[in-house]
């Protein structure tokens, strides 16, 4: 059993399903291709254990093709600075030190 994410035209996850194991084929096609063709959407496998594509996909996540990563929507950090950690492809809220005007 494996998990698959369906993407809209902007690479936003619209649905995540449980499907057959990624090592199997359907009608001679790999699972991502078959599910994508069946639904008429791009389909990417995702991992509960974050073993592939950095993060488990959820509805509203973005798939970044160049990084081959699922990225959560930006959180609200309030007055903190928001950065994307490219080692994990997770957002981090960090405090910003301001120079004093002494």
Helical/strand content category: mainly beta
Order of helices and strands: EEEEHEEEEE
Strand order of the largest sheet: 2-1-5
Percentage of β-strand residues:
35-45%
Low-confidence stretches: none
The overall pLDDT, averaged over residues, is: 93
Radius of gyration: 17 Å
Helical region count?
1
Description of the structure:
The protein is mainly β and 102 residues long. The protein contains one helix and nine strands; from the N terminus they run E-E-E-E-H-E-E-E-E-E. A three-stranded antiparallel beta sheet has the order 2-1-5, with helices on one face. The longest helix has 9 residues. The model has no long low-confidence stretch (mean pLDDT 93).
Brief descriptors of the model:
37% strand, three-stranded antiparallel β-sheet, mainly beta
């Amino acid at each position: 059993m494996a998990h698959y994410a369906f993407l809209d035209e902007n690479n936003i996850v619209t649905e995540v399903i449980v499907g057959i194991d990624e090592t199997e084929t359907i009608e001679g096609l790999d699972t991502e291709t078959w599910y994508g063709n069946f639904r008429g959407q791009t389909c990417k496998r995702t991992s509960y254990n974050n073993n592939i594509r950095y993060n488990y996909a959820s509805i509203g996540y973005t798939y970044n093709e160049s990084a081959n990563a699922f990225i959560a929507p930006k959180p609200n950090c309030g007055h903190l600075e928001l950065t994307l950690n490219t080692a994990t492809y997770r957002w981090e809220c960090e405090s910003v030190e301001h120079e004093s005007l002494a």
